[in-house]
Amino acid sequence: MYQRENHLSRHTNPFPENLDDTVYNRILKDPNYWISQDLEDKIIQIISQSLDISGILYHLGTESLITNAYDLLPLDDSRIDLEEMIQRLPILIGRLTRAVYLNVKPVSNQKVIFLFNYLPEYQEKWYDAVFFQGMLNGLAVLFELKEFKIRMTKTKLFGIHVSHKELGENILFGADSNEYEMEWLEDNLFLSRSRLTKDDLTNRHRVMVTSRMDSQLEEISIVDVKDVVGKSRELAIENRDLEAAVEVLKSFKQELEKKQLSMEKDLRLAKNIQKGLIPEIIPDWNGIQFWTAFAPMQEVSGDYYDYFPYNMDKLGVAVCDVSGHGVPAAFITALSKLLFSNFKKPKPSETFKLINRELLDLVKQQGYTTCVYVLIHDDYKVLYSVAGHPRPILYRAKTKRAEICEGDGTFLGMFPDAGDTFRDLQIQLEPGDKLFLYTDGLTEAENDKGIAFGEDRLIQIIETTFEKSIQETVETILTIHKEFTMGTDPMDDITLLGLQLSPRLPEFNLIKAKGDEAYRKKEFNEAVVFYEQAHQILPRELDTQLSYGKALAYSQNFEKAISLLESYNKFKTNHFKSHSVLGYCYYQMEMFEKAEVEWKKAHSINDSNLSNLYNLAQLYRKLNEKKKMKDVIEKMKRIEESYLHILPLEKKWESLPDE
């Protein structure tokens, strides 16, 4: 093997420093030529530096057993079984080496312990361990065992520098003996010598007879040792090739796993970024309530929805479906958010024209998006435009009927002249009316029979849920959709956005006005009562939620105020007052770290209002943090040196003990 791997001539001695050419040629020609253990060790060490020879040594051990087993058989042609062959194995070890002798300890009829003992002047070698286990494997090959286990249990060696998984698990290194354990389940084959010839007279001494008892019948066959060795060698070569292929596959697998981990990390990052781009909830606006359902097919989605306030009199809402899936689609959704935020035009068609142009410049026709965009006015007139997207479905509370709205137009980001296809359409919302915007992943999803969910089924569900709120309606649609597609894999991202003009809007406005009046009079307990009622009608109407939270805080109901204000701040309105009042509530509940965070946020939003810095100074005074208090006072001086609270704060600072 070493010659072949290194492309050496058969007559070239690769070990000139260790043996002369005469000895080298005798080793190659005469398998019975003996060499010292020292010379054997030197040769093997040199070869093992450039080749993994553990598999070769294992095979040679197997071949040695098979080749020499004939001489262990009885001379009178009587047959022996595996158990008796094992008892004769020490004779073979004695013939092959003068450095080791073998003791055999039967544990049961089908389990044996082999103890390899070295003479005092010799030392165990790692290659001995592999070779001897190969010999034990030769027993299994010779007796055609189908179910067996051979493993090293103990060795005097302190570790083996080749892979020793084949030797066994949990090997005790540095032990006081060298032991192997062999266990088998099947043992019904017998061997005996034969004077028969299989091919010619030269093979006579290498032919054995095998016999196997099967029920009441005895099956007899002739075995040529040369054939067995040849087949064993073929299997060893195939196994070596297979091991090489497995190593290559392992290498590929490791590379793929590294790339997969990297991709998973990138996808998690993209998912977190997209999660920040797509709002979890849309707040109630001017009496209109929203509810959304969003189900990405992969880590990141090509579906996208968002809302865009236009001062106080209009609100834009978009639902988009980007071509493809994964990170490229998520990139275009991020662009969409930026473009919709930048282009707040009075007509949706104008917004589409500008976005189409920008996407063409940025994406270079490598992706596109369909979209429906609605612009809701404070008088509940709705302008909308469709760009290659499923048209909205409008439910009328008066008629209890739902219908697909008009609309047409090509998608965004692919055609320069797409702007000519966009049209503005108008509907007027009445109390109780519902409007549904969705992506085609909802209606095109199929059940296990290949039937699509479809728009007709969607309209039917909307009409049967006429008494339900917009939240209940959306959740009912999703529940029925999940049952319909049960047992199938999702084919696309799914987005459903529903909005409803509250049928209780007049009642809400009246109660809210009473709460505002009580708040202006600083009758906070009374204001809390009215705001609570209004909040139940429109629980995500932000103006009411903030007023309700402040009234709770000023009426000393700090726990409930904290709950309301934390919920309000999730909408990221960047209202400094909500953070300021929340900090005050935390302070009163002695949650000082949280109070500090909220007052810092409030100051960063509105740094001209010094009340938050004053509150921070008082907080640091309470905590005896003199340096932090001094820093805040200096900041207040830089903003407004004449602020009347600075001097009292400095006197309080001077009274603090040094840190």
What is the CATH level 1 assignment of the largest domain? Alpha Beta
CATH fold title of the largest domain: Phosphatase 2c, domain 1
What's the story with the biggest beta sheet? 5 strands, antiparallel
How many structural domains? 3
Into which percentage range does the β-strand content fall? 15-25%
Mean pLDDT: 85
Tell me the quaternary state. single chain
Low-confidence stretches: 198-205
Q: Which architecture name of the largest domain does CATH use? A: 4-Layer Sandwich
CATH superfamily of the largest domain: PPM-type phosphatase domain
Annotation, overall tally of beta strands = 17
Give the termini distance in whole angstroms.
78 Å
Helix content: 40-55%
SS-based structural class? alpha+beta
Task: Tell the overall outline.
Answer: elongated
Strand order in the largest sheet = 8-17-16-13-14
The number of helical runs is 21
CA radius of gyration is 43 Å
Coiled coil: 239-273
InterPro entries: Bact_Sigma-Reg, PPM-type-like_dom_sf, PPM-type_phosphatase-like_dom, TPR-like_helical_dom_sf, TPR_rpt
Protein name: Serine/threonine protein phosphatase
Domain PPM-type phosphatase: 287-501
